[in-house]
């Protein structure tokens, strides 16, 4: 910025302004007429030309300044330049910096996965122990039981359940009309885990139970371990009686564990009944639903194997005169399902 | 500056005697060059013909494929990650898995969008999981590794399709089962070789399990694929 003749140009007025060695003075009282901008009595064209030259010089000076580091120019009076001038550019720059800072602050606050990091701080041994403990109900209900607040195990169990459901749907040839196989499986499992957890947490809040949302998610997530085991076995071994035994034993054990944990944290008979009754009902019914809604291969095989043994209504329909096929099909379908249910039991 | 230099030249011998007092001003100009060298680099890749750019990218992708087929502990896959390879593999797999429906009205096989979503969202979830468990690998590096390691499964898909051309009996099912199992374990092993290094040593099992599940689901989709009659 230091020019060779030591003359700092801070002129911003359109008419050129005074030169610095006149304003600040070099100690001499004599005005050097050669250096003075003599605008008095000049013609209009000269004024215009001088004005234009001043403007160009200023623009060059601005560009030169813009490429350097901006150190202490905030204090300078920048005059009436508008958006295009130095002031406008600085303001735009600062607005951009401030906006960027705000956005990155908000992003770091809300989208930071470090918020979830403490819930994934587990060792493989801990996960294995918790999986086994989820099948063992604890008798102590007078003192609040310890529930681990962890999300790794529950999430992996939900994904495993999704994979098992997919396997079950594929082998049974389940047909999904509106939607996809994968979407249905993921929606069902995650919906159950998150939805039922929230609902039971809400009930627990109403009934004054001492449990946090994280603990509820963790408890229900580990309770799905029993479901995974039962479904994995019964999707491959097709015996209905085996399914019912496993449903009672394995499903019952994991439900009892969750119920005991909740009872130990609730005071009063009626609240205990409400919360634990709802949880038990939902958990057991979910296993029942998963088995029957996503696994139709047993019925299919029975249909194809028992070819000559037709459902009764079909034989009757052949003897009747021409009837509306739609009505016949509907009645046929209902009787068929009834017959299958009777056969399975 | 020039005056000081000129005055110090004949005084080399007595340099130790010279002491510069504090109130001698040093003048000069300092010019900071604005970053023109980086602009030159950009211009050099911007000006090259498109064929060169494509060939260079293809060579990089091909090199990574070779790394996946022979998984050694190398950092080339992690250092220069790119997502071209995963995209190519994902699209190929999704196209080949289409048309597996038994009936044209009902959907027995996965749609293109389903496979796409499974692969990409599965990779994202595994990456988030490994980051939450304390991994040192970055988001896109992990996506890159998981995507490239789908390659053995794509090869298995091609083989399965060829086997299915010859009929769909029990023998073909056993052959397909062996091929898919082998390629699925290869995929899991290959991705573990790259990903496990970035984890603390006692938590490797926690990271490997979701990867195993992910490739298992993809392998299952390949195995149960049956083309329409």
From TrEMBL, chain A:
Protein's membrane topology: Multi-pass membrane protein
Bias type Acidic residues, positions: 57-76
Entry keyword set: Cell membrane, Cytoplasm, Differentiation, Glycoprotein, Golgi apparatus, Membrane, Transmembrane, Transmembrane helix
One Gene Ontology term, aspect cellular component: plasma membrane
Membrane spanning stretches: 151-169, 181-204, 216-235, 241-261, 273-294
Keyword Cytoplasm: yes
Location(s), subcellular: Cell membrane; Cytoplasm; Golgi apparatus, cis-Golgi network membrane
Protein name (Swiss-Prot/TrEMBL): Protein YIPF3
Protein species of origin: Coregonus suidteri
TrEMBL record, chain B:
Domain Yip1: 70-221
GO BP terms: endoplasmic reticulum to Golgi vesicle-mediated transport
Record-level GO cellular component terms: Golgi membrane; trans-Golgi network
Keyword Transmembrane annotated: yes
Spans traversing the lipid bilayer: 81-100, 112-133, 145-167, 173-195, 207-226
Keywords, in A-Z order: Membrane, Transmembrane, Transmembrane helix
Classification via Pfam families: Yip1 (PF04893)
Keyword rRNA processing: no
Cellular location(s): Golgi apparatus membrane; Membrane
Topological type in the membrane: Multi-pass membrane protein
Main location: Golgi
UniProt record similarity statement: Belongs to the YIP1 family.
Name recorded for this polypeptide: Protein YIPF
UniProt source species: Coregonus suidteri
